[in-house]
Structure formats: C-alpha cells, structure tokens
Specification:
The complex is a heterodimer of chains A (117) and B (116). By secondary structure, chain A is mostly beta strands. Chain A contains no helices and twelve strands. Chain B has a single domain (4-98, 105-115), classed as Immunoglobulins (Immunoglobulin-like, Sandwich), CATH 2.60.40. Chain B has strands spanning 4-6, 10-13, 19-25, 31-38, 42-51, 54-57, 65-70, 73-78, 87-94, 105-107, 111-115. The chains are: A mainly beta (117), B mainly beta (116).
Chain lengths: 117, 116
Amino acid sequence: AQTVTQSQPEMSVQEAETVTLSCTYDTSESDYYLFWYKQPPSRQMILVIRQEAYKQQNATENRFSVNFQKAAKSFSLKISDSQLGDAAMYFCAYRVPYGGATNKLIFGTGTLLAVQP
Amino acid sequence: DVKVTQSSRYLVKRTGEKVFLECVQDMDHENMFWYRQDPGLGLRLIYFSYDVKMKEKGDIPEGYSVSREKKERFSLILESASTNQTSMYLCASSLDTLAGGPGELFFGEGSRLTVL
C-alpha cells in the first residue's frame, strides 16, 4: 500500500529566510502525482504545488519549489523568502494518475510551520 | 474560482444523535470526497463519490454513510454519533473523471464536530 511520511511535526523559520519541509513516500508505481497542500489556521486547504513523476524537472511556483528525488522517493518543499502568511499546516500528498475508484489522494500527517517576525 | 461550501463550520451533538454534514460544489465536478482530519493522523478518506448515486468506501468508512442525489451535493451521515467521531471533517471535489485527471482537490473550510 502506498504511504506518505512527513517526519517533521513542527518547524519554525524566521521571516525572509528559507525553510525546507520533508516528505517521503512509498509506492511500487512508476507514474504518479505528488502534491503539497497548505492549510492556514481556520481557513481552507489550498494546493501549493504539484509534481508529475514522469517529469524530471522540479516544479516551482513563485517562492515555492520542490526537490523531487524519484529513486529515493523523496519530495521536499522549499519556501524561499518566508512570509508571515506562510504560517500554516503543510500536507504532502500522493496519487496515482488513473481514473475511477483509485483516484484518491493519500496524505501525510502534516508539518506545522511557524514564521517568526 | 471553484467554491466548495460546507454547511456548518462548528457543530456540537450528543452521543447517539444522527448528524448530517452537507457539502456543495459549484464547478460541476464529478468527484467528491469526505476526509476526516485528526492531529498526528493527517487526512483520512471516509468515502468518495465519482458520480451521482455512486460511492466508494475510503479507508475509514465505519460509522459513516454518504448520499449523493445531485451532482453538486455530497452529504456525510453519522447514523449514531459517538465521542470518537469528534473531529474536523473536510469535503473536497476534483475535476477528475473515471479516465483520470490532474488530481487537484478543492476543499471546503471544514466542519468541526464535537460529540458529547
């Protein structure tokens, strides 16, 4: 069964600094999607960034980028120039690309990121 | 923008009560999901639906049922609420079809249920 592991329950970063959140996963599939979702306090969860496993190039979205290491089954999120609004719970998630009953996301346990002014 | 609306942000119920959690999406998505979020456990899938009247059990369906009579609405039902069902419940929808898709979920704001 596929699993997603986030080994850092909490992290802290100074405003304007860079922080990296870790995620590892276990799968026997060769094609899949990986996601990072952000859940701000008392607000809805939103997608931060998405990576397709067949793409070797790491995804980037403004200040957010990933380090995707397929062989190591590692998918870390780097936040550059951290802002107070980045404070949130971050979830790593995995999904196979097929349709039907298998198209569900599997989530990690989350990393709570605090941003210090 | 996609909007997923959950009818209640906060609910307090008594043990044994029947509880309905409602979710509506406005983007004609075929797939809808109910997740449960607990500290240290992340999000766990309760049920999902890939079409009207179609449903599939997720990882923790025990004690829950769902209803999808219309495409835009997906309801989670706790037939007889218990204290161990105190949790945050998240509804989501996705653009994916039976053939697949980009996989992104759009979430509601969540319903925090307390069962006394």
